[in-house]
Amino acid sequence: MAGIFQRSLRLRTALRHLSPQSPLSWTVTGRHTPLDLHCPFLPSTSWQFAVCSRKLHTGGDRPSPAAAPDRLPFSRITQEDLAFFRKILPGRAVTDPDLLESSNVDWLKSVKGSSELLLRPQTTEEVSQILKYCNSRNLAVNPQGGNTGLVGGSVPVYDEIILSTALMNNILTFDSISGILTCQAGCVLENLSLYLEDRDYIMPLDLGAKGSCHIGGNVATNAGGLRLLRYGSLRGTVLGLEVVLADGRVLDCLSTLRKDNTGYDLKQLFIGSEGTLGVITSVSILCPRKPKSVNVVFLGCETFEQLLKTFQLSRGMLGEILSAFEFLDSECMRLLNTHLKLRNPISDCPFYVVIETSGSDSTHDGEKLHNFLEKAMTSSLVTDGTVATEDSKIKALWSMRERVTEALTHDGFTYKYDISLPVERIYQLVTDMREHLGGRAKSVVGYGHVGDGNLHLNVTSPVKDPALLAAIEPFVYEWTASCNGSISAEHGLGLKKRNYIYYSKPSQAVALMGNIKAMLDPKGILNPYKTLPDDLK
Amino acid sequence: MAGIFQRSLRLRTALRHLSPQSPLSWTVTGRHTPLDLHCPFLPSTSWQFAVCSRKLHTGGDRPSPAAAPDRLPFSRITQEDLAFFRKILPGRAVTDPDLLESSNVDWLKSVKGSSELLLRPQTTEEVSQILKYCNSRNLAVNPQGGNTGLVGGSVPVYDEIILSTALMNNILTFDSISGILTCQAGCVLENLSLYLEDRDYIMPLDLGAKGSCHIGGNVATNAGGLRLLRYGSLRGTVLGLEVVLADGRVLDCLSTLRKDNTGYDLKQLFIGSEGTLGVITSVSILCPRKPKSVNVVFLGCETFEQLLKTFQLSRGMLGEILSAFEFLDSECMRLLNTHLKLRNPISDCPFYVVIETSGSDSTHDGEKLHNFLEKAMTSSLVTDGTVATEDSKIKALWSMRERVTEALTHDGFTYKYDISLPVERIYQLVTDMREHLGGRAKSVVGYGHVGDGNLHLNVTSPVKDPALLAAIEPFVYEWTASCNGSISAEHGLGLKKRNYIYYSKPSQAVALMGNIKAMLDPKGILNPYKTLPDDLK
After folding, report:
1. Handedness of CA B274, B275, B278, B283 (dihedral sign)
2. B36 CB near a chain A CB, below 8 Å?
3. Quick check: do B2-54+413-505 and B293-404 share a fold?
4. pLDDT in tens, chain B (537 residues)
5. Which of A298, B52, B344, B355 has its CA 20 to 30 A from that of B82?
6. Which cofactor does it need (chains A, B) (predicted)?
7. Is B326 helix (H, G, I), strand (E, B) or coil?
């Protein structure tokens, strides 16, 4: 198969671009969201990361692939520009440095830009006017939703104009028969969830950052999250988008249809493109019914092989009500015990599983769960377990999975990786990393979304340790690439990971991405320095 | 909202392109597949449709928008070309006219090309060599899977080289834990289904044409089908593609990961692009577990409003086990009685519903169904109904929905439309069409997939009737456009519908599609005359 050749080529390309690699030297300053939906691998101690890190060499001759490139030759904002923006956005063209502060910095406080202008449009027409003007003036623009991204994609790198969707927060329509919601891009995910729950529906995605993230940003980053196992990705649930292109043209693909095969599906270009191809202004999305019954179980397995068999059994016996299958290893449990004083609710095991069911009939769901557990126990797939049906106990069991990230922050400096792999391989990376690092790491732990093949690999050290990092990278990326895995399962590439793309995508594909960028944004004004690697620019 | 303006513009553009319109004059010669998954609106009596129809004017000064444009200036095949193909595909470069016959004609026998060369590669590398050569020689290529398409997209229009995926039929991998299947593009859908059923999985799509259609063709046309309500579209279930571009480059996006956010999702470009942007050579797809329990009910409703309320109730009470919600009207039932002697299994009603459940526990599914039916009856949403759990009775009930198409062929000449609409509007089009046509039509019937908002509108006449057609079109398209519907829910545009695209897509979007085509296939050799409207070429 040519595919094998291509993948081999991909790996070689990745190595050529990225190895040997300058060790990075960041510390964790941000707190993580529940369930580790947002577990970046590259947090930084420095507020000046973006601008200064190019000069930080810590062991190699070349700058880190994650460092910001030099500022591109965009125009600088003039008084005439300000006058224009103040005219079209009265009171909503912000230049006060105090007000700009929080929009210039990502929530991990790892990247800081120096934008002097924050625009807060309310309508698509205003976004169109802004971009048309910026394109004609060669002014760079950083589209920003709730600014909860973890790869430095949601903040300016230099002086890009920040275009916030915060005031575009109207729900436009909701069809209670089809469950299709249409809203502006700046609607906060949690507000949409609350709106829908009153109408017996839920959003098809749920994130730890739901209290502040915007649906437009969720779509722009193709956010994954907790419900992906059950309801699939945004590529299936987003039915339509309205997007403003770099030159101000409005692209109306705001369909509210489940089926439409008239030409190419242009909206897919913008899902997951991190604001580099257009600014999403409205979204239509298919919403599932609110489940009437939710159960959670916490189980222990002796081996990861048994854990995988348990997953397989749950898919067969829980079938349509299975809504989450998460895991953590005994090292995670040790950290929960040690640092957070959380008591293991079952007996000690090498692996633990959190399973959630969501269904329309509590009696049926309870019976299915009972039958599944009986089979899992009698087959010796699981050695111990406990079930929760009440809210408080459900939360307590979930916390064993959710609070691993918090426990890690108490264990020391943490190197974090968000890796997608074929499900049967996800724990092998942890084992191999442990063996590879030997005594150099304090802890090497693995947890994550088994159902999605998404591993959160974390390595701790008493203090930040460039030598340890040099041992982890590029090992972790090479290992992932050798399994055709993804080095960014759900966080995107943003500023920080853009140059690592070759580990997961062949050079042909990256070149084509560059062609698409050039076609849609020939001047490159939209979210520069993000997503695409520097060698394409 | 700019969106409203855009849609208004879209409609005006559509009218400018397509109205007034030459009446068309086709008859139905093809038989339809079960469940009317393939119900084209433009079948033709003429084998020479593609080449000759440009000259067939029947009431207007301009050719039909569905007619083939003039042949584009591609090269013609030489002896040197043949020698090249025979060398790289020994015994698989077919020139025998008898063997070419079936590949030159679509299965409706409505479009016939005049290709003199059929290539049958076995590997991606061979496809790459073919396209590299064709691109350099400016030879047009018609990619062909199972040739079950209904819009003239799967056959040559003139002398394009037919590139068949029939010999690319190997299953590459199947992961029994994740349910992810990887296979070559020429695998027949039914063969994949049988392979998976042995392993306790099913394909996430099911089509009437499954016995002959290829998975590559399914993906290239974004096939919908029976299971869309439950498992979503191919845009969510297809995880990866390997594609050969027009110039022979192999694009390896054959990921087998549920999550991958490293750059733009290029595979989406090729899903639903009908072979105009690249040739799909391999597919990876996420497969659901095989349901252990299936039930079917047949219900009657007094009004369409009650039918919609029944749909809403079923979503709430059947929840995760609802797998189909189909409808037919009393006119359909009359045709089933009259022409096929099928007896109505319940009392006469204006509307009938077929509901299917698929679940993992037959007792639970039966209880849910019972509770739902009791509620629907006591709320007077449905007036009568019958349930089937045995295979033979399930088939009998399904046949009331499946055989409507067959009954229509006995009623006279049939004008068929496959329309996607907001679910609450789908029957209004039938009512309005009935009123609009008055006594001019013999029958005006509506049936389709309520769950997907997909209406099959059919109008019959004793004989073909250009005046009747002129009354139907552009009325049906304008009506659909006024509701932001789609004039092709699942069949694509192909040759026959390419110029109707403006009814469902704004001109900005169509122009961007043209840019994408020019970027990926600058010489336009891949499936020319298809998908994109003539005014872009």
Report:
1. positive
2. no
3. yes
4. 333 333 333 333 333 333 333 322 222 222 223 223 332 333 333 333 333 333 333 334 456 777 899 999 999 999 999 999 999 999 999 999 999 999 999 977 779 999 999 999 999 999 999 999 999 999 999 999 999 988 899 999 999 999 999 999 999 999 987 899 999 999 999 999 999 999 999 999 988 788 999 999 999 999 987 788 899 999 999 999 999 999 999 999 999 999 999 999 999 999 999 999 999 999 999 999 889 999 999 999 999 999 999 998 998 899 999 999 999 999 999 999 999 999 999 999 999 999 999 999 999 999 999 999 999 999 999 999 999 988 899 989 989 988 898 899 899 988 888 899 988 899 999 999 999 999 999 999 999 999 889 999 999 999 989 999 899 988 999 999 999 899 999 989 999 889 999 999 999 999 999 999 999 999 999 999 999 999 985
5. B52
6. FAD
7. strand
Of A1, A235, A263, the CB nearest to B513: A263
Quote the DSSP letter at residue A421. -
Domain boundaries, chain A: 17-47+412-504, 79-166+519-536, 171-286, 293-403
Distance from CA of A460 to the nearest CA of B (A): 25
Is-contact A421 A429, C-beta < 8 A?
yes
In what side-by-side order are the strands of the sheet with A161-164?
Answer: A93-94, A118-119, A161-164, A141-144
Per-residue HEC secondary structure of A351-417 comes to EEEEEEEEECCHHHHHHHHHHHHHHHHHCCCCCEEEEECCHHHHHHHHHHHHCHHHHHHHHCEEEEE
Residue B227 and residue B447 in contact, taking contact as beta carbons nearer than 8 Å: no
Starting at the edge strand that comes first in sequence, how are the strands of the sheet with B413-420 ordered?
A: B384-388, B293-301, B351-359, B322-329, B443-449, B454-461, B413-420
Residues 6+ apart with CB under 8 A from A447: A36, A326, A327, A328, A329, A332, A401, A404, A455, A456, A458
Query: Of B356, B419, B474, nearest to B12 (Cα)?
Result: B474
Contact call for residues A503 and A477 (beta carbons, < 8 A): yes
**B422, A221: Cβ pair inside 8 Å?**
no
Contact A521, A140 (CB under 8 A): no
Pairwise CA distance, residues B311 & B432, whole Å = 22
What's the token pair of residue A135?
């394109």
Confidence check on the interface: ipTM exceeds 0.90, yes or no: no
What is the nearest CA distance from B341 to chain A, expressed in angstroms?
A: 33
Question: Would you call A308 an interface residue with chain B, using a CB distance cutoff of 8 Å?
Answer: yes
Q: How far apart are CA A24 and CA A14, in angstroms?
A: 18
Q: Are A307 and A379 in contact (CB under 8 A)?
A: no
Q: Which residue of A has its CA nearest to B309?
A: A177
What architecture (CATH level 2) is domain B79-166+519-536? 2-Layer Sandwich (3.30)
- E-strand spans in A96-226? 118-119, 141-144, 161-164, 171-175, 180-184
The dihedral through the CA atoms of B264, B267, B272, B278 has a sign that is positive
Residue A511 contacts B, CB cutoff 8 Å: no
Residue A376 in contact with residue A384, Cβ under 8 Å? no
Distance CA B121, CA B129 (A): 10
Would the CB atoms of A1 and B318 count as touching at under 8 Å?
Answer: no
Give, in words, the CATH class of B171-286.
alpha beta
- Using CA atoms, how far apart are residues B493 and B527, in angstroms rounded to an integer? 12
CATH topology of domain A293-403: Alpha-Beta Plaits (3.30.70)
Helical packing angle, B330-340 and B404-411, nearest 10°: 70
Fold of A17-47+412-504: Alpha-Beta Plaits (3.30.70)
Matching CATH number, B2-54+413-505, of 3.40.50.720, 1.10.150.530, 3.30.70.2740, 3.30.450.40: 3.30.70.2740
CATH 3.40.50.2300 fits B293-404, yes or no: no
